[in-house]
DNA sequence: CTGTTGGCACACCGCCGACAA
DNA sequence: TTGTCGGCGGTGTGCCAACAG
């Protein structure tokens, strides 16, 4: 054996020099992951980053440091995104260089908008969860018929038996060769020679998944997706999990104080949720007024690397961690799920993760309203998803009801450009002329429609629908808000943040102490509270009797809360 | 296969519940590692901790954050020490809970003193570096004869061939069974059945080492020591190395500011040097006046897990990182080694790592002066090592020259108790009556001795000694210092530190800024500089022409510099 | 005394169709 | 259509003594 290249920890960093194939990376990351493009604006949530660390350590950290000077979100310029894969485990992750910004250009916002349109999920691929037979040393890999015919080069069926040699390269550009044969009674596609070394080298077990991709040059690519239980535990004999948490927060705080760049790793399969959100996506979500009882859909990954939507209901709104992350938008929605496979789906989500369904129609089963939207399961996501959600939620305003031209201006939240011009001109005519669909009083909407044709609602009274646990009437009533007063509040807060971001952290702390003593209404946290209690036309409901004690169910009017 | 326990990442944390065998841990950690006992006082060097992180990441981090408020050393109470081993790699590490202290009790200092006496290296053990044959699938493990006879249970040699079943448990209390047989021509001890699964499970390669220990209950213990090239690389897809560094420093800074406990991991085989030093060891070292050209010995680990001393010369004194860690004692000595296997031995060391040899005798080869100290290689270290070093350095004052009683009071630096009483009584009679041997002018010593019997020096003019690269006369001349003026300077600095440790970090910075503007002589860093330039009888030499540009060769008189 | 090698036996890896779900 | 099984052939693991350094 010459120069034993340490099969245990193969030459770290060698394969990293070449850039990793983006299609393959996204295939391994899963259909839900879409990275914002470099040069765009994003919202970074240190709280979510901290969750990724905790998940990676696989232990609940009792002691989580609080960083009072670190806001729960930072608007950042995303300077750089590089794709990586762990040389040992093939675990995919992305490295991002972020820089907190105090002001930003129109181009960056546009780029942020572009980010939503990118779908990186490869088109020609298949993903199979390995069976016991697949991973056993006893035999090879049974290839699903459709997958083999779609992805693999065509066999010469005149041979007896038809067979060929396949070469596929993994994330590190290592080539793996397999004997692909079509045999047996009945006939089936199999990978035989070469398969078992792949399984043992990658340390695959039943339940893990492999995926094959045919790229644009008809080259075969090969990736793996490990089962959840097998995610890298990272026992970390290097630094304590406390120091990791502190490091994450301190790095962000330092960057925020100096407007300097900092680097993070995003690990799509270890992290419970993405914590770097395109600003456009975030802003779009912010035009949704979340309310108790609101129905929504949320996308999840299927076993076959496809997507499926599950229905849920907002059951509570309030800080996930009221001590350390007060007034944070991170997972501030408590939710329940229609199909109660508890544990699989999160009990808390963030607003930008869900596709709201306007409440008056929660009793209407989706199949009726969406005959023209037969979303293929397994099809890649695209940028129109959010708009689709609106269309599906309010189809009576869409194509089915003859309002063809409405989609561009009325439904899907503001486009960023529209919003920007509004913002710059300080005019709010847009709101007056019909934007902010979810903020329009649902009661009046409901009234209009039901008076138009009530039978359409009654005829389809939901077939076997679990009873909602909250009072919908109450919840709905608070949707009566005044968009005119909301919009300024949103941006005044962010503008308040700007001078603080430019201040070194020690001066900032000093400054805060003075402010708290003398003019408490100028400190950033206080600012949020005052805007919350500012007089608006909204109603504030209290559901403390039904909600868990830890949940604050106060509904502030500021959509930026 | 029932409930596949994921051979890849075995149930993390299960084996951790039981406490790890201390003997085995220390066997795997190596003979140089001795952990301070819980309850003792230690000196923590964040710079060294940062080095461990860098070494673990196996990449030079360009960006290392500077923490101007974090001193280069923290005196801490060591609250807790727990031994651990990575479940995947068996890599040993220790978790320590430290708390910066501003004042400390006599008991704690005594405990710190005790720490030096502990030697954890097991007595009944053997360690063998695996050969190609040992790790090959072709055969078993060849046990060195002496090792087998010393450690393994005796064989029944009446059997043909003599054989038995051995059971040894590893760090995680997993049992491994081997067939131990004595056969072949010539006869030899072999481990056959069971050995290859151990090798493959632990992923051992030629060059790695295994060690067998027989504990007090005659139970066999089994550990591994991987070759350096195979140290865990920790590709860390969780947080960036920047954040790791920041986390380490921020955790320490936070703890220092609040006098609150913090947790660190010490990884003896990944870390270039220990960075948690018993206060007693540190203090003892501080009574050595390092000087350019000074000769010293330093202990290194041998392949067989023994120890060996190498001779070296101090070639420069100055900050390793003048920007981020100014006036740090961490590796502030540049050294050259007599046996020039460059790369193996560090080019920079800290004062407490070395055993000084007083300069006038650098030309005297050790064999002559130490006929009575035939240190057994492979023998465990003990607390008398430092004193031994002095004895060997100045044997003319020791047993060989008829000053039997001298060892207790004259040589080995102050005992902590002696120092404490001195400190409390503010009396310095100890210094006047012959303490601080290394601070006594070597010239006068040299003069006395040479006038006594110069032939003893000249007769043994070093046989083939590499020429020193620095001017020894110059270097020696600065050893003329006045111990009476030095001692107060030493401890006034530490007393200065105490109120600062109690101050939150932001106030501290504020305070420092004021001080720098108004009374610069009170800030901690300035204190060091002023004490350097304070009028003493010392001479300050400048060797900028011979030393590298990055090295400060100013020699302050304060031994605490 | 111990590292490597050739010889040899047998266990299990891995290819095959037969089933059945 | 595809997961598992019994069948069987061949490779490679692993025990042995013979050398040699």
UniProtKB/TrEMBL annotation, chains A, B:
It is found in: Nucleus. Gene3D superfamilies: 2.30.30.1040, DNA-binding pseudobarrel domain (2.40.330.10). GO terms for cellular component: nucleus. The keyword Transcription applies. Keywords: Auxin signaling pathway, DNA-binding, Nucleus, Transcription, Transcription regulation. GO terms for molecular function: DNA binding. Residues 506-561 are annotated as: Disordered. GO terms for biological process: auxin-activated signaling pathway; regulation of DNA-templated transcription. InterPro entries: ARF_dom, ARF_plant, B3_DNA-bd, DNA-bd_pseudobarrel_sf. Its main location: nucleus. Belongs to the ARF family. Homodimers and heterodimers. Auxin response factors (ARFs) are transcriptional factors that bind specifically to the DNA sequence 5'-TGTCTC-3' found in the auxin-responsive promoter elements (AuxREs). This is Auxin response factor. It comes from Quillaja saponaria (Soap bark tree).
